[in-house]
Amino acid sequence: MIILRSILFNLVFYTNLIVQMIVLTPIYFLVPRKTAWFVPKNWVRSNHWLMEKIVGTTFEIEGLDNVPKGAYIFAPKHQSFWDAYALLPWLDDPFYILKRELTWIPLFGWYIVKQRMVPVNRAARGKAMTEVMERTKREMATGRQLIIYPEGTRRPPGAPPEYKYGIARLYRDLQVPVVPVAMHPGLFWPRRKFLRFPGHFKVRVLPPIEAGLDPDAFLARLVEVTEAASDELLVETVRANPHLPLPPTAKQRLRELGAA
């Protein structure tokens, strides 16, 4: 049954993306940029509904009162394609620093350009990277929220942390708070797999780390608070969903926590 539901969800998920992008594109490009956010945010909400109805997966968000007003860096754990889009409706005017090749994709790339995402040539050095930072500062100055995944790439639930120093440099240069976010969507939407598993999980938005710390002290603090919350949620999520097939990294971490 899980296989059938997963196949159906994947088909409907991408059909929903294509249909909404085509049908709502004229509206998206006619309205002002910030107003146009309702199109991708509506797509996200519809995906949450589809995942609940087809797969049986639900979630809740704790700590939304920790989100500050105005500009900040939003720093979630990254385990799944789910967390690449799922929290957009709860952010006012977010943006990403992303590889420039994404802007070349027909239609999708036009959406990115309209929302003033910051493209980066990963092979670039020197002046090009300086321009990326200047562009990022301009966007933050308008009160936007930069979404950064501190570990850089998707990591399986329970995997040892591998935080990149890039977020510490951004924290130093942008001088804004950083909001850590812990969650385990990878238990329900595993990376590099088509299976989707039913159940319920929590997204925990943690208190912001205020601007002004030494970059090394900031990074240590970010790792400490995020990983502590991740461990708590891992134990809680597995106990609440005993049917889940756990990846080896989650099993190992549970053993280390004495909660196997």
TrEMBL record:
What pathway is it annotated to? Lipid metabolism
GO biological process annotation, one example: phosphatidic acid biosynthetic process
| Domain (Phospholipid/glycerol acyltransferase) ranges | 72-186
Entry-linked Pfam families: Acyltransferase
EC number(s) stated in the UniProt entry for this protein: 2.3.1.51
InterPro entries listed in its UniProt record: Plipid/glycerol_acylTrfase (IPR002123)
Transmembrane intervals: 7-31
Provide a Gene Ontology MF annotation, just one: 1-acylglycerol-3-phosphate O-acyltransferase activity
Q: Does the keyword Transmembrane apply?
A: yes
Q: Which PANTHER family match?
A: 1-ACYL-SN-GLYCEROL-3-PHOSPHATE ACYLTRANSFERASE
What's the protein here called?
Answer: 1-acylglycerol-3-phosphate O-acyltransferase
Q: Which organism is it from?
A: Sinorhizobium fredii (strain NBRC 101917 / NGR234)
Taxonomy, top ranks, is: Bacteria, Pseudomonadati, Pseudomonadota, Alphaproteobacteria, Hyphomicrobiales
Q: Which gene encodes it?
A: plsC
